[in-house]
Amino acid sequence: MEKGALRSDLAYAQLGSSEIARDINRDIVLELIRSSQPVARADLSRLSGLQPSTVSSIVEQLLNERWITEGGVVRRPRGRRPTLLSLNDRLVMLAVDIRPRWAVVAVIDLNGRLLARQDVLLPADPEPAISRILDSMVDLRQRHPGHVFEGIGMSLPGRIDPATHLLVLAPNPAWVGYDICGTVERRMELKVEINNAANASLLSELWFGRMNGVRNAVLVSIVEGIGVAILANGQILSGLHGLAGEFGHIPIDPQGPVCVCGKRGCWEVYASSSAALRFYAELTPASSPISIQGLMQLTEEEDEHALRAVAKQAEYIGRGMRLITAALAPEMILIAGDLAGSWHRFGGIVEEELRKNMLAGPPPRLTLTTDVELSRLRGAAATALQRHSGYYSSKQPARLGPESFS
């Protein structure tokens, strides 16, 4: 596996032939059970290309580790009736989606089902913010005594260094260098994995969405800023220090407004939800500040200024995608975030600008994520699930805390 590339969709993994083959094949079997359940051992052998004895050995391991359970049997006119396998619905993850001012804490099972959630308002400083999130985790865990909590996954609007598991870029919330994983693990006594929010959304699409057969795609998350995740040849790219995909901080106008990164005229300054609110404020200087949800509601009420502001944002989203298509040439671009709920009004503007700004050839397919509301939570859960199983978990670098840099 190449440095800077995280294996994301186990259906694309190649069968291993070295000392890591067993872990890779274990992940493949687990993914096939997830996508084909309930499924018999013989079908797993046929789908994976693995020998029946190899599949049986892996299945026994997964049963012992409680990842899967045995259920009903297949009725056949003659011969042995095989037992069907499914994911263990009593095994769950705590998932956390952190935003600049609030977080959503949830319980999600291995099939991506949301069992419970709580919204938590967050102060600016990381220590009291994480303390509130921890209180919510403890409460949700106590409310589900019949479930086994396997781990914790967290998505954040920032970039995480895969080697240290620390935020290295996070304008809002400004928690760079704070040991989130260590703080949560010490209190919850569960393994914690964190992921960039855009990467989490893309991972959610790969594990729980409809991306079978797609090996090259980009997800653009349009919220307070612009987040981008890259799928290249079936792998989510992390890059050096986890910084791959920061297209939102590429300037498209050197004379433009100052971005949170300190440069002028970044794509994010024109295409984010914050940009849409700025456009609206410029059109209505006497109006009171509103939220992006309030602005989108005004567009549904046919407010002229709101429609103009969001249409301008949509134009810049489409224009800025030239950065993506020229650099990566993806098969598909997925849209997540605040604009998704009003895509029926503004999606056509984005598509037209994308088409007009292609370097060559037809534009990639443009589509919304399958579940806008839950994609980041499910992606956080999938991050924990993926990194606790087989090949990936055995190859992760040692986790370093802030004291490692002193």
List the strand order in the largest sheet: 1-14-13-12-15-16
Order of helices and strands: EHEHHEEEEEHEEEHEHEEEHHHHEHEHH
Strand portion: 15-25%
CATH class of the largest domain: Alpha Beta
Helix content: 25-40%
The structure class reads alpha/beta
Annotated CATH topology of the largest domain: Nucleotidyltransferase, domain 5
- Rg of Cα set: 22 Å
Number of strands: 16
The end-to-end distance, rounded to whole angstroms, is 31 Å
The count of helical stretches stands at 13
Give the CATH H-level superfamily of the largest domain. Answer: ATPase, nucleotide binding domain
What does this protein look like?
The structure is a single chain. By secondary structure, the protein is α/β, with parallel strands linked by helices. The chain folds into three domains: 5-87, Arc Repressor Mutant, subunit A (Orthogonal Bundle), CATH 1.10.10.10; 91-201 and 376-405, ATPase, nucleotide binding domain (Nucleotidyltransferase, domain 5, 2-Layer Sandwich), CATH 3.30.420; 212-369, Nucleotidyltransferase, domain 5 (2-Layer Sandwich), CATH 3.30.420.40. It is 39% helix and 21% strand. The strands form four sheets. It has a six-stranded mixed sheet with strand order 1-14-13-12-15-16. The radius of gyration is 22 Å and the shape is globular. The model is unreliable at 1-17 and 390-406 (pLDDT under 50).
